[in-house]
């Protein structure tokens, strides 16, 4: 597991599932309890992310497969094609927050190196 932390939020790539023709990247966001909104009449707005990958000269197509969340936890899975290399290689996963439904980048972006 690789992670990034900022402002009471813990972002993590929990695992990557490999298939013959694609990979699936599993990504979670967890909010520290002290940063959560405890008002029962309000809700946490769901955050939307896109994934891009830098690794050698390969161009990867990354598509959001699913996303869901509850109080203080959100999870996403991205389908990546072609499949990510299994051998050790320098790779950077870049997560960019976007405003839904137009996929306009919000300006918040971070990367996780594998």
In terms of topology, how is this protein built?
Elements: E1 2-6, E2 9-18, E3 23-31, E4 48-54, E5 61-70, E6 73-81, E7 92-99, E8 104-113
Antiparallel strand pairs: 1-2, 2-3, 3-6, 4-7, 5-6, 7-8
Question: What features would you describe in this structure?
Answer:
With 114 residues, this protein is mostly beta strands. Helix content is 0%, strand content 60%. It has a 5-stranded antiparallel beta sheet, with no helix packed on it. Strands 4-7-8 form a 3-stranded antiparallel beta sheet, with no helix packed on it. The model has no long low-confidence stretch (mean pLDDT 85).
CATH superfamily: Conserved domain protein
Helix/strand order, N-terminal first = EEEEEEEE
Instruction: Provide the CATH top-level class.
Output: Mainly Beta
Largest sheet: 5 strands, antiparallel
Low-confidence stretches: none
Category from helices, strands and their pairing: mainly beta
Strand content: over 45%
**What is the CA-based Rg, rounded?**
15 Å
CATH topology name: Immunoglobulin-like
Our count of domains comes out at 1
- Count of runs of 4 or more consecutive helical residues: 0
Mean pLDDT: 85
CATH architecture: Sandwich
How far is it from the N-terminal to the C-terminal residue, by CA?
9 Å
Largest sheet: spatial strand order: 1-2-3-6-5
Tell me the helix content. under 10%
- The gross shape turns out to be globular
Give the total of beta strands.
8
């Amino acid at each position: 597991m690789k992670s990034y932390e900022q402002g009471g939020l813990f972002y993590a790539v929990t695992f990557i599932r490999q298939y013959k023709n694609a990979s699936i990247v599993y990504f979670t966001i967890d909010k520290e309890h002290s940063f959560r909104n405890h008002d029962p009449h309000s809700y946490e707005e769901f955050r939307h992310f896109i994934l891009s990958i830098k690794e050698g000269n390969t161009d990867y197509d990354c598509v959001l497969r699913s996303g869901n969340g509850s109080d203080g936890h959100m999870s996403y899975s991205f389908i990546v094609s072609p499949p990510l290399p299994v051998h050790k290689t320098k790779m950077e996963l870049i997560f960019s927050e976007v405003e839904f439904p137009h996929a306009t980048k919000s300006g918040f972006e971070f990367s996780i190196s594998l």
